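re the bet — no i am not wrong, look at it urself. input seq straight from the record:
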Amino acid sequence: MSGLKLFRTDTTIGGMTEVMPHLAEVEADVQGLVEAHMETLLGVRFLASEYCTGPIHGGRIDSLGLDENGSPVIVEFKRGVDAGAIHQGLFYMAWLMDHRREFEHLVRDQLGATAAAQVLWSAPRLICIAGDFTRYDVHAVREHRRSIDLVRYRLFGSDLLGLETLASVSSGTQAPRRARRQAGARTAADIQGASMADLATAVDEALRGLGDGVSRVERKQYRAYQRLRNFACVCPPQRSKLLVYLKVDPKRVDLAPGFTRDVSGLGHHGTGDLEVQLRTTRDVERAQDLFRASYAAG
């Protein structure tokens, strides 16, 4: 991986030994490794490998999956650098959008009827995993309307896999603007609503400002922020607070009653085991370190 060096402590010589990076011998090796651990590596539930798109279309999708928000995912693999990876993936994406019912049947067979009924067709994703990409690939992705992630891989030694997101673009829709009230006296409810809207805007700016490649996905029950995987989920504002769920281990946090809560094992919308309760913009500042920790883990 560009610029990254990995070293292992060598106790026999009291020093460090560099672990040299290398590519897979064949494309199928990296594909098999990722498919076997897709949910851990990509936050995507695996559905099918080498999926045939039929005699007319004449294609074979490397991997199909469903991400944490219910978005369909196509994963295409290339051993090294291949200028056709993105175009091939988009070719399959067009097929997928024309065969929604077939995909939903696959989801139902693999994950059940509930998952099939909640497929989010507004935000299908393409993840390209390859040994490397050109600067033209990165530029092309940023000019495209689809949700596309370019992920560079490297193998280190015999038991280490590195994944690096080079570009990530989302086709997620923007949150609708609130309609302005007609002239007239503002009630206490109006003021409270405006206050919560400002708080939601501050959280959105804080999460999207953590770094490049942050995508936002809108679901009815929550708004997800993701790099390759979700790192934050924000629920619609309640009367006096906003709930944010983060991919942070609650056991590593000094929990503060009324601010942070361990929700591992508890049902809630979105993903993440740490609940953060925000009531003012000052709380957003207070939560910045937690936001960064979850972003780094994602």
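see?? The longest helix spans residues 188-208. told u. also Residues 206 and 288 are 8 Å apart (CA to CA). so pay up
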